[in-house]
Amino acid sequence: MEILSFLIDGIFLALEPTNLILIVIGVTVGLFIGAMPGLGSVNGVAILLPITFLVPPASAIIFLAAIYYGAMYGGAISSVTLGIPGASTAVATTFDGRPLALQGRASLALVTAALASFVGGTVANIFFTLFAPVLASAALSFGPPEIFALMLLAFATFVGLSGDDVPKTIFSICLGLVLATVGFDTISGAPRLVLFEIDGFLRGIGFIVLAIGVYGIGEMLWTIEQTRGEVTTTNPKMTVKGMASDAKEAVQRGWKGTWIGSFIGFFVGILPAAGATPGSLMSYGVAKMLSRNPEEYGRGSPDGVAAPEAANNSASTGSMLPMLTLGIPGSPTTAILLGGMVIWGLVPGPRLFVDETEFVWGLIGSFYISNIAALVINLAFIPLFIWMLRMPFTILAPLIFVLSIIGGFAASRSMHDLWLIVIFGLAAFFLRKFDYPLAPAVLAIVLGPIAEPTLRQSLLLSSGDPMIFFNRPIAGPITVVAIILILLPALKYLRRKKPVAKG
Amino acid sequence: MKLTKRVFLALAASSTIATLPMTAVAQDWEPRRPIDFTIMAGPGGGADQIARFIQSVVEAGDLTNRPLIPTNRGGGSGAESLLHLKDARDPDHTLMVTLNSFYTTPIRQEGLGVDIETFTPITMMGVDPFVLWVHKDSGITTFEEFVAKVQEMNGDYVMGGTGTGQEDSIVIAYMSSAYGLDINYIPFDGGGAVAAALAGQQIMATVNNPAEAKGFYESGDFLPILSFSDERMDAFPDVPTLKEKGQDFSYYNQRAIVGAPGMTPEAAAYYREVFGQVYDSEQWQNYLVSESLSPLPMDEATTRAYWSTQVANHRQLLADIGN
């Protein structure tokens, strides 16, 4: 009951006029930063960090957390309306959000995303409130072998269950993995695959560059080629009644994905080194795996929108946990928040909950308020985003192109990245012509940089013995499940081939 | 259309707020555009924290008439930053926050063609000492017990760090060769990840800057058993130094601001004035104490001499550890 009284005090602190105003501003700013392709919560929080010196630390972190929340909601918006993930955390949202928009059901997708985000955030808040210190120390038992096993599982959910051509899926994953190794090797400390000796490759190839190339430029070329410019987006209607019925449908057809995303997102989010992006991708994979109609996924399933959206909100709250209780950032954004806390003179770590009770509970209280504020503000803006979709394609296409370029440049301020975006866009178009699925490549460039170092760290720990992935109590079961999932389609493939061969 | 406008308005509004108050410092030269404030490391690490702290002190005190724009360019162990400065088109508006990869990266990657002695010294903000940490459950409380344990485990003693050729690996390599230790060294992605691995006992010991281990030290999870500073540190008066153990070795991470090669003396003077004010500010002085940094103020000529000795030292250290 002590927790409850702390929480109520925290919520009241968050409801103080200054804090409430900061929450509303933060969520709104975050929503738009998140919606801008290329710019995500990292950029938003980094840009606005200095402003927080004008207010007390508790208000400052509440403001930044509100931006973080808003950006998580906002990421879905361009995923659905433009087909470009607004942030790395929203890439899985494009898989089903975009098809829904093309069917004229953009409002269903956006409403589903908003509701799922809300549930994800709420579930995570409740877990956070009740179990923060316990979960934080449990997360520490995830060492390199456990994280690698988890990454293997994430790949497995994609290979094992993609209805697509398995060899082509594997090719696509390998392509992503190779791109992920460009740049700098943490383990040996040496630069590698610096293609053509171009210095820009020293930094490696960012996920956002590939995603904007593939989903921004590539998708646009594809649409133009398919339709010869005669795109007929079914005129989406927007009424209060329509939104209410969308909300009803979202609940009916998206509840399962929402719950899966809420739970998986939170637990992946609290792991050091993981964060919201792997969390949302894994939730999508698992939701598809557990679905009765996996063939609906990728063609506009509300569950496919709900799972990643619930997960990215849940995971972003989750990744606050190791930051506050252990001083370890679970995601790039929390790394900047952590820097902010040090600037404000707070010491994140095991003592924070004891020494800075008011600060911690004010922040947790603000999560609840921000979540509600984000839902309301997001729903209020949906008609605006829908209106954008009504623009003729001849206007929308150049707009997408410009947004892709600006977003890609803003994230890193490097011309090198812009050229890569264009090259990836063209490459994506041709790969798609040959029926190569591109989502696995994008997945690989997100998970590769986590999987590769943890694999090598594990093998260093065990002096090269791969049994380390099997004989540790947490890593073992995860690895076994992952391997079964990878082998599953091979078995199905053989079973399917046999009768054909006989006949 | 509205979407873009909105975003731009939001961004524009935020940057306006950040730059509203103008400075009143009388100077011959003043920045004419936003100042590129390159950080030699990724977000969240020690260097990044310090850079953002400095930026915040500048903002809070309205010390510049144009904003500092921090950008993380940590690629290739800082190579990306070094090249960015070397090829800066506008050296008068290009600054960098360094760590010791400022010295090691040009030595380890000669192909870059970077000579740091051409860079412009601005301000030495302080130096960050290194400390050897173990987990409280390890049963080790002194450096002698640590040495005995490592020797007994015969190559199975696992330490974590931020990578071969990085600051902590140089310290560990020196310690290993001085005491004949065979340590299994596992590289992690940044000081925060290293601290987490020790907290979860994935590894048995680390060499870290105090700031990165502070939270766990205060909660009692980490024990400092040796420091690599010249004198005992104020924060850990009971922890002996390696020098006391009879080794002539100390090692610090440099926290400095440098300018691009070719920066005009007027611009350099302006930035020295600005960051000198940051250095003297109450916020920075408190930060030095709370994060256990040592002050090491020096003027331009001393800095240049210091760079030459550091480059020579690092060349020797890296050669000793076979890099």
Instruction: Flag low-confidence runs of chain A.
Output: none
Count every beta strand of chain A, where a strand is a DSSP E run of 2 or more residues. Answer: 2
Q: Could you list the spans of chain B in which at least 5 consecutive residues all have pLDDT below 50?
A: 1-26
Number of domains of chain A: 1
Oligomeric assembly: heterodimer
Treating each run of at least 4 consecutive H or I residues as one helix, how many helices of chain A?
20
Q: For the largest beta sheet of chain A, what order do the strands appear in spatially? A: 1-2
| Total domain modules of chain B | 2
* CATH level-4 homologous superfamily of the largest domain in chain B: Bordetella uptake gene, domain 1
- Major beta-sheet overview of chain A: 2 strands, antiparallel
Helix content of chain A: over 70%
Provide the succession of SSEs of chain B.
Answer: HEHEHEHEEHEHEHEHEEHHH
Q: Any idea of the CATH class of the largest domain in chain B?
A: Alpha Beta
Number of strands of chain B: 10
Mean of all residue-level pLDDT scores of chain A: 82
Globally, the shape of chain B reads: globular
Q: What CATH architecture of the largest domain in chain B would you give?
A: 3-Layer(aba) Sandwich
Q: What is the CA-CA span between the terminal residues of chain B?
A: 55 Å
What can you tell me about this protein's structure?
- The complex is a heterodimer of chains A (503) and B (323).
- By secondary structure, chain A is mainly α.
- Chain A has 20 helices and 2 strands.
- In chain A, strands 1-2 form a two-stranded antiparallel ribbon.
- In chain A, helix 1 crosses helix 16 (357-389), helix 2 packs parallel to helix 4 and helix 8 crosses helix 19.
- Chain A starts with a helix and ends with a helix.
- With 323 residues, chain B is an alpha/beta fold.
- Helix content of chain B is 42%, strand content 18%.
- Chain B has a 5-stranded mixed sheet with strand order 2-1-3-10-4, sandwiched between helices. Chain B has a 5-stranded mixed sheet with strand order 7-6-8-5-9, sandwiched between helices.
- Chain B folds into 2 domains: 36-128 and 252-320, Bordetella uptake gene, domain 1 (D-Maltodextrin-Binding Protein, domain 2); 131-227, D-Maltodextrin-Binding Protein, domain 2.
- In chain B, strand 6, helix 6 and strand 7 (183-187) form a beta-alpha-beta unit.
- Chain B is built from 11 helices and 10 strands.
- At the A-B interface, helix 2, helix 3, helix 14, helix 16 and helix 17 of A face helix 1, helix 2, helix 3, strand 7 and helix 7 of B.
